[in-house]
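Homework help board

Subject: predicted structure for assignment chain

Our instructor gave us this sequence and asked us to write out the predicted structure in token form, then describe one feature. I got the tokens but I'm not sure how to describe them. Can anyone check?
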Amino acid sequence: MLPLDDERWSLLTTFFGEPQDLPRVLEDWLASVGFDQEEEVYARHLCPFLMHQATIVNAAFAVAPWLVEVCRKGETRHRIEYLTDVGLIEANRLTSGVKFAREGTEAFPDWLMPDYLQAIGDSRFLADDAIDEEPDEERKRGLVAMRAALYGDAALAWARW
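My token output:
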């Protein structure tokens, strides 16, 4: 995972906010995990940096390993939602790629992709477990759709979406 103090965060593209602010927002979200404000911090503060209207920018490749790590640790009640977003990131990577990249930045930074791809591999087992353990069919609907992307079939994921 890209360390929060790594200067390369500024080399990323974000939808909203400045890329160099992303580590602070990510740190705020990490501090909220397991508490009542977790969902709001994620949805209102972190997610807008990397996703907008089911599209992504390259900052998503830096954040996805952090999402998977939180799910792996089991500290959150929002595992379904985070893994759905990881699947959405992967579905985009496999089909349309990033919505745009800031001038001078790479759409798929080589220095991010090994950790990102490892997180995708790890998320497969976490997604399977989350789906099996969630009794609410409506809540897990998005993850059921995006699970296919985690296994490399973005077309099926989008068709189910």
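Reply (TA_rk): Your tokens look well-formed. For the description, you could write something like this. Strands lie at 51-52, 55-56. That's the kind of observation they're looking for.
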